[in-house]
Protein backbone atom coordinates (compact mmCIF):
# COMPACT_ATOMS: atom_id res chain seq x y z
CA UNK A 1 0.00 0.00 0.00
CA UNK A 2 2.81 2.39 0.85
CA UNK A 3 4.44 1.61 -2.50
CA UNK A 4 1.31 2.59 -4.41
CA UNK A 5 0.85 5.79 -2.40
CA UNK A 6 4.47 6.72 -3.04
CA UNK A 7 4.09 5.89 -6.72
CA UNK A 8 0.92 7.94 -7.11
CA UNK A 9 1.70 10.93 -4.90
CA UNK A 10 5.47 10.80 -4.55
CA UNK A 11 6.34 12.36 -7.90
CA UNK A 12 4.68 15.00 -10.09
CA UNK A 13 3.82 12.56 -12.90
CA UNK A 14 1.91 10.25 -10.56
CA UNK A 15 0.08 13.19 -8.99
CA UNK A 16 -0.79 14.56 -12.42
CA UNK A 17 -2.12 11.20 -13.55
CA UNK A 18 -4.28 10.91 -10.43
CA UNK A 19 -5.65 14.42 -11.04
CA UNK A 20 -6.47 13.46 -14.64
CA UNK A 21 -8.21 10.26 -13.51
CA UNK A 22 -10.30 12.05 -10.87
CA UNK A 23 -11.23 14.87 -13.26
CA UNK A 24 -12.26 12.32 -15.88
CA UNK A 25 -14.45 10.50 -13.37
CA UNK A 26 -15.99 13.81 -12.33
CA UNK A 27 -16.78 14.79 -15.92
CA UNK A 28 -18.27 11.37 -16.69
CA UNK A 29 -20.45 11.46 -13.58
CA UNK A 30 -21.59 15.00 -14.38
CA UNK A 31 -22.52 14.06 -17.94
CA UNK A 32 -24.36 10.98 -16.69
CA UNK A 33 -26.26 13.08 -14.16
CA UNK A 34 -27.20 15.62 -16.84
CA UNK A 35 -28.36 12.83 -19.15
CA UNK A 36 -30.56 11.37 -16.41
CA UNK A 37 -32.01 14.77 -15.51
CA UNK A 38 -32.70 15.75 -19.10
CA UNK A 39 -34.22 12.35 -19.93
CA UNK A 40 -36.70 12.53 -17.06
CA UNK A 41 -40.30 12.97 -18.20
CA UNK A 42 -41.66 16.50 -17.91
CA UNK A 43 -44.12 16.83 -15.04
Automatic annotation (TrEMBL):
It holds the Pfam family DUF3149. Keywords: Membrane, Transmembrane, Transmembrane helix. InterPro entries: DUF3149. The chain crosses the membrane at residues 12-37. The keyword Membrane applies. This is DUF3149 domain-containing protein.
